Amino acid sequence: MTKTPYYKSIGKEEDVFTHAYNNKLPLLLKGPTGTGKTRFVDYMAHQLNSTLITVSCNEETSSTDLIGRYLIKGAETLWIDGPLTTAVKTGAILYLDEIAEARPDVIVAIHALTDHRKELYIDKLGQTIKAHPDFMLVASFNPGYQKGFKELKPSTRQRFVALSFVYPNLKDEVDILVNETQIDTATAKKLVTIAHKIRNLTELGLTETVSTRLLVDAAKLIGTGLPKRLAVKVGIVEPLTDDEDIITALTDLCDLMI
Ligand code: ADP
Q: Keywords, A to Z (predicted)?
């Protein structure tokens, strides 16, 4: 097994995950992008000695992609299990990243796995398979980003235990930057202070604000020697918006703070 990834706990999420796992309850991780959801699932899979299978959902992701399909190989037709079927059979953790992006038939496919039945119906084979006792379903969802666009239906949400991910506090976020990159604590503190400042500037109307991921990226650039102001501009400011006025205002602000 590979090395356990670094993950800094920011609340009771490890306990919640472990209890959900032990009770075989599906878990929904809610929160903005770059707040550590994917890293957390990876970390927990290691902690629980489980195999993790991740599917990054997009608008094309269908139940066939998850369940499986027939492939024609020469004169033969072969059935290939999809990631969901593999996880259900082998007792892995299946992580559906950005579940609301997927096609509606994906939600239908997981229904019977998210209630007491704990089974998967493979329509193309006419088979129903019982989930392995160690199987767990985890999904992530970004409520802010999907507002009014791709919501998760209440009837779907209520099938999950749900955990909210928020940005870490100052000290925890500095720890994350120092652990993830080669950066010194003083510079990490400056980056995190910049992030906190921008996150509070709600009047800018940014769709997404500075995530821990952006900070890690900027810190990496600084760590390998890119000048700090340039690293902050390309690592933090530019990815946030295309509005020239906002870019100028944020760049000026960051230049003063780094
Ligand atoms: P999400 O899945 O929420 O979009 P990720 O898990 O991909 O976010 O996190 C993005 C990056 O931010 C990670 O690769 C990691 O470097 C860093 N990160 C964020 N939160 C944490 C945390 N609590 N512990 C360790 N690293 C973190």
A: ATP-binding, Nucleotide-binding
Ligand 1: residue whose CA is nearest its atom 27: 36
Report d(CA 194, CA 175) in Å as an integer. Answer: 15
Q: Does residue 144 register a pLDDT over 80?
A: no
In the reported structure, the alpha carbon of residue 39 is separated from the centroid of ligand 1 by a whole-number distance in angstroms of 5
Q: Which atom of ligand 1 is nearest to the CA of 40?
A: 6
**Segment 90-103 mean pLDDT:** 96
Cα(40) to centroid of ligand 1, in Å?
7
Strand partners, 30: 141, 164
Return the residue whose CA atom lies nearest to atom 12 of ligand 1: 213
Q: What is the pLDDT averaged over residues 154-159?
A: 88
Boundaries of every domain in the chain: 12-164, 170-256
> CA dihedral defined by 172, 213, 221, 57, rounded to 10 degrees?
150
242-254 confidence digits (pLDDT tens): 999 999 999 999 9
Q: Is the pLDDT of residue 186 over 80?
A: yes
Residue 123 Cα to ligand 1 midpoint, Å, equals: 37
CA 132 – CA 201 distance, rounded (Å) = 47
Q: Indicate if ligand 1 lies below 6 Å from the C-beta of 167.
A: no
* Architecture (CATH level 2) of domain 12-164: 3-Layer(aba) Sandwich (3.40)
